[in-house]
Amino acid sequence: MDFHFTEEQRILRKTARDFLEANCSASFVLEMEKDEKGYKEDLWLKMSELGWMGLIIPEEYDGVGGNLLDLVVMFEEMGRVCLPGPFFSTIALGALSIMESADDGLKSEFLPAISRGELKLTMAHEEPDFTRYDPYSVGLKAIKKGDAFLLSGTKMFVPDAHVADSIICVARTDGQPPARYGLSLFIVDAGSKGLNLRPLKTMAGDKQFEVSFNDVRVSKGALLGRLDRGSDLLDSILRKAVVCKCAEMLGGAQKVLEMASGYAKEREQFGKPIGSFQAVQHHCANMLIDIEGSRYLIYKVAWLLSQGIPAVMETAACKSWVSEAFKKVVSLGHQVQGATAYMIEHDMPLYSRRARIAEMSLGDGRYHRTVVASQLGL
Amino acid sequence: MDFGYSREEEEYRERLCRFLDENLTEEIARQNWEDRGVGSEGREFSRKLAAYGFLGMSWPKEYGGKGLSPTYEFILLDELGKRWGCHVPLDVGYTMVGPTILRRGSEALKSEFLPRIIEGEIEFCLGYTEPNSGSDLASMQMKAVEEGDYFIVNGQKTFNTECHYSEYHWLAARTDQSRGAPKYKGISLFIVDMDSPGITIRPLWTMSGERTNEVYYDNVKVPRHRMVGEKNMGFYYMMEAIGSERNQVFIPMRLYSLLQELVQYARDTHHNGRPLAEDPLVRDRLAQAAIELEVARVLADHSRWLESNHMPLSYEPEITKIFTSEMEQRLVDTGMQLLGAFGLLMEDSPRVPMRGRLAWYYLHSFMTTIGAGTSEIGRSVIAQRGLGLPRSY
Question: According to CATH, where is 1.10.540.10 located in chain B?
């Protein structure tokens, strides 16, 4: 048992914190919410120069060769400043998919370019029928035609599709939704004929899209993993992406707590700092309790996954818990900071809006509790 | 970051599990958990735990311990807890009193008491709370006045559990009566023989059937050498021990068996021909309980890790305590809703499910957020020590 980060991880955190504080202010985040593209290419390139795109990519593919815990540290820091842009899509959904697929050809084709910051990816998974999240209720069809597949159907909530060079698409090659069997993953060139994007307007101004596939042709070389048996691959990708999303939420929650407790120490009413009142103290304590539980559960899951242990139960527990915890933390953060934090230019709304986006991303608490229930033997 | 156990630790766990599967019964677990009084079965189990070498793993060799990491103690507490919420039968001596004697006691006290604690022979009861000193513990009024080689002790304690079967009272009393002295600077700790003349014990019965006690001291003579550490330093000794005590008492795995029994109940019990386990609401509630147990476990692992590596304990064990005790109440509520009217049945009722354990857990669960410090005091401690907010009391 050891809760210490390595020296390298501590340096990584410090570098990320310093860089992001200098380059990603709250006003920048607000500006990017309104910006059509939603990020700045020069910031992307600077992050790439720091080696962040290649952090988790093996050295043989021009990466840094880090592990999932390194990536967790990075996402915590990104979540802390609500970093806009396609980093999560490219790395947690894109690079990790290709790495998990264990396809050497695809790895050589994509990973070095991702590492160099030249390639952006995303994943198209959810669909209009995902009125309740269920990763296997995919209906988008991929029909084999000679040496190729034709993809037809509609995807929803695809992050950063407007800037992605390639889209990993979860498609049905056999059976009917919600069967686990019959799913296949394809990597689709975003410039393919028959692909259409419609931007969705979310409450956080992040960039999500409806992506329709109208007989989009992909070669059989674009298949990630095995035909019809993509669910196992999808599960292992999503477990890692989930812990990254949780780390992002943790960073945000920690920042909210710092704002709230800082305010409670400074703000005076009845001649005393409001932080000396037990009602306010207990709000702050509740935030810390939820954050500490989230923190160690995330680190444990990242450690388990990095050991090659599937950790199905723990990962689902983690997403369910952290999604709920982040929501509770932003509610209490608002309550402690009163009307001032309700103003649009205050930093708080950045987090309270993102808490809801993150909750729904990669499955909400309700869905993940169904996974836990099955794991319990129910 | 490493959440694993070493090979030696895993081997210890395996050996321990084999021993517990052969020797531990629900009756023994309940004698301690329910404070029914550790009877002959519990005492025998305690001696066996010691004889087979499962006690004292982290204690110094000169007093009969093995001088290893406290991680072994936590493995012991987890494996006991998994089995009907069991704990070390004589737990006050083993997890609370012993460590303070080790830190602060004289050589004579160490040699007199530590080996017998590690052998599973003796038990202590805590003598802290008084009728007018609960959360504000430092305001205690029980007096110990020095007279030659003795202290003469007078006053009253209340909610002193375990006193009716312990050999010794671990007593905190006021030794500085001067006015104006800060209240927490005038308290000393004593080890008192429970059969000393002048001690009267009166039972108090709790709503869940446990026995606790009022204890009256009428001119009780306590030898000077039975004072622990320095005079007037007792309150500091109590506070420096509190983090470790929380680590050893609030064991999330003690709730594991209740959760497992509820899962089993949901699988085995039918409504309209279908198992309750297929009801989405039942699944959601039990999954939530399992998730909270995971959270409680990592919180405990973190504060245990601090202790095992001799790092300062601050607000962390308080978080473990609050989270674990409050999750127990939520788990019990989930269980009560799952069992419906059958959850109301006590253990000797016809048609009682789960041996009536759930009804007992419900009645018991009110104590967990009060005993050993209320959740409210705990949250202020977390806010002040963990976040640096100003003092509120």
Answer: 7-89
Q: In percent, how much of chain B has pLDDT > 90?
A: 94
Domain B7-89 in CATH: superfamily? Acyl-CoA dehydrogenase/oxidase, N-terminal domain (1.10.540.10)
Q: What is the CATH number of domain A231-376?
A: 1.20.140.10
The reply to whether residue B287 touches residue A1, judged by beta carbons under 8 angstroms, is no
All residues at 6 or more sequence positions from B74 whose CB lies less than 8 Å from its CB, including other chains: B247, B304, B308
Largest CA distance in chain A: 79
Q: How confident is the model at residue B36 (pLDDT cuts 50, 70, 90)?
A: confident
**Closest by Cα among B329, B257, B324 to B296:** B324
Q: Are B59 and B98 in contact (CB under 8 A)?
A: yes
Do the Cβ atoms of B287 and A370 come closer than 8 Å?
Answer: yes
CB contact under 8 A, A289 and B322: yes
Asked if A376 and B290 come within 8 Å (Cβ–Cβ), the reply is yes
User: Across the 378 residues of chain A, what is the mean pLDDT of every consecutive 10-residue run?
Assistant: 96 98 97 96 96 97 97 98 98 97 94 97 96 96 96 98 98 97 98 98 96 97 96 98 98 98 97 97 98 98 97 98 98 97 95 97 97 98
Contact A244, A75 (CB under 8 A): yes
Q: What is the pLDDT of residue A295?
A: 98
- Is the Cβ of B274 closer than 8 Å to some Cβ of chain A? no
Q: Report the CATH architecture of B126-236.
A: Beta Barrel (2.40)
Residue ranges of chain B that CATH labels 1.20.140.10 = 250-387
A273, A297, A366: residue with CB nearest B390: A273
Q: Which of A314, A321, A373 sits opposite B286 (nearest CB)?
A: A373
The CATH 2.40.110.10 portion of chain B extends over 126-236
CA distance A283 to B379: 9
This complex has an ipTM of 0.94
Q: The domain A123-229 is classified under which CATH number: 2.40.110.10, 3.30.2350.10, 3.40.1030.10, 3.40.630.30?
A: 2.40.110.10
- The pLDDT of residue B34: 79
Q: Please answer yes or no on whether B323 and A293 come within 8 Å at the CB atom.
A: yes
Please indicate if any CB of chain A lies within 8 Å of the CB of B75. no
DSSP H or E run through B190: strand B187-193
Compute CA distances B87 → A317, B46, B166, whole Å: 27, 10, 16
> For B19-46, what is the mean pLDDT?
90
* CA-to-CA separations, B381 to A281, B281, B325, B375, B393, in angstroms, rounded: 9, 36, 16, 10, 10
B234-249 vs B71-82: helix axis angle to the nearest 10? Answer: 50
The mean pLDDT of B212-238, rounded to a whole number, is 97
Q: Do A273 and B308 touch (CB under 8 A)?
A: no
Confidence of residue B178 (pLDDT cuts 50, 70, 90): confident
| CATH classification (class only), A7-119 | mainly alpha
CATH entry 1.20.140.10 includes domain B250-387? yes
DSSP 8-state code for residue A138: -
Q: Which of residues 1-40 of B touch A (CB under 8 A)?
A: 1-5
Read off φ and ψ for residue A136, nearest 5 degrees: -100, -5
Q: Which residue, A326, A316, A363, is CA-closest to A247? A: A326
Distances (CA, A) of A140 to A127, A219, A297: 8, 17, 34
Please give the Cα distance from A32 to A48 (Å, whole number).
Answer: 19
Task: Classify B27 as helix, strand or coil.
Answer: helix
Domain boundaries along the sequence of chain A: 7-119, 123-229, 231-376
